[in-house]
Design brief:
alpha+beta; single chain; 5 strands; two-stranded antiparallel ribbon; three-stranded antiparallel beta sheet; CCCH zinc finger; 182 residues; 29% helix
Length: 182
């Protein structure tokens, strides 16, 4: 396999324009002020295909740190998982991330990222009047929070409280259900 870098000015290629290849988050929230000057698409009808922009070649094998960064895109989601499942997931992480890297082209990885971001948008906004605490949420850099509702003695629902969740957290004993934040 040859080197993917240019070795002379003759081998240099112009960078493709990525204009309108990703949905505008501000437009989706209803407050993009750039209008036609915005570099992002204002709806699916404006999205341009990346197929013509990015060469179709497999991504190079990555080290564990890069694989963990890609996998942590799901860090904002919390799952109730059995502790045996947690152990199995941790054992398979390296193998699965390598298989995904080997099977997906760069274009597929970029498109998957865009789709994930689009799907996560509804979950990134806190309920009106409530804001999540400062914290990190894996590779995407979003804040992470989860709701803990309690019921008062009279059966009335109390106001939800939000607590910060570290990017990698697992709680529980072997054989018991655990809550894991990847």
């Amino acid at each position: 396999m040859g080197c993917s870098f240019a070795h002379s000015k003759a081998e240099l290629r112009e960078r493709p324009s990525l204009r309108a290849t990703e949905l505008c988050f501000r437009f989706a929230k209803g407050n993009c002020r750039k209008g036609q000057g915005c570099n992002f698409a204002h709806g699916h009808h404006e999205l341009r295909s990346l197929a013509q922009l990015v060469p179709q070649k497999s991504m190079a094998r990555s080290n564990k740190k890069e694989a963990a960064a890609r996998a942590s895109a799901l860090a904002c989601l919390d799952y109730p998982v059995d502790s045996a499942t947690v152990q199995g997931m941790m054992a398979l992480t390296d193998q699965l991330s390598q298989e995904l890297t080997d099977q997906l082209s760069y274009l597929e990885m970029v498109e998957a990222r865009f789709k994930l971001m689009e799907q996560m948008m509804p979950f990134l906004d806190a309920p009106p009047g409530l804001s999540p605490p400062t914290g990190s949420c894996g590779y995407l850099g979003y804040q992470s929070y989860h709701s803990e509702q309690t019921v008062a003695a009279e059966g009335e629902e109390q106001t939800p409280s939000f607590s910060s969740v570290s990017p990698v957290t697992a709680q529980g004993e072997p054989g018991e259900p655990v809550k894991i934040w990847l």
